[in-house]
Amino acid sequence: MSDKELDETMTDQLTSGARPAPAGPPADRRRRGQAIAGALAGVAVILLLVVVFVIVQSGGDDTPAAAPPPATAPAQQAEPSPAAPSGPQTQLDPKLQEKPVVKAGSGTVGKLKVTSLVAGQGPKVRAGQQITVNYVGVTYADGKEFDASWNSGQPFQTVIGAGQLIPGWDQGLVGVPVGSRVQLDIPADLAYGENPTGGQPPGDLRFVVDILQAA
What we know:
- By secondary structure, the chain is an alpha+beta fold.
- It has helices at 3-14, 25-61, 167-173; strands at 81-82, 113-118, 130-139, 145-148, 156-159, 181-186, 205-214.
- Strands 1, 2, 3, 4, 5, 6 and 7 form a seven-stranded antiparallel beta sheet that branches.
- It is rod-shaped, with a radius of gyration of 52 Å.
């Protein structure tokens, strides 16, 4: 081949528009690097979400528990029992600090009679209330004492007007102001009767009762 023909052949090869050969191994390494980087980014996002979830859950555990409901108060005692006065107090006359002297009556008691000996300044006793009292009880005919709260050193606490006491008390003490000292002359039919069987005194009775509190 002449020199001219060789030059023409080389020129044809350079200007023929042939494309370069496909990329070799360096391009494959770049694609693999990009794939690994994408995978690592996905793992990082997942780890971030897990950390956030754990933090949120831990914060929820610190929330203080709701306080338990208050305990319910105990029910009021239904049966009478000795007890000292409690709660708000009415100003009491100094005479109520001393045991009264209770004398016999005269004649017979035809009906319940309530006599005020010391006028109280407190609210009037209502049926169903729990009252705190001191009392002395004697037989009406001879003035013999058969019972007195003073002897135990404690006032007596009971529910009034609820059928737990003799009718003379339930009827005679309702409406009496707290702080009063009253004398109850009670006929036998409003007391224990003429022939009681439980050891109670028979016949007409006289009580002197100090009303210390009603609630």
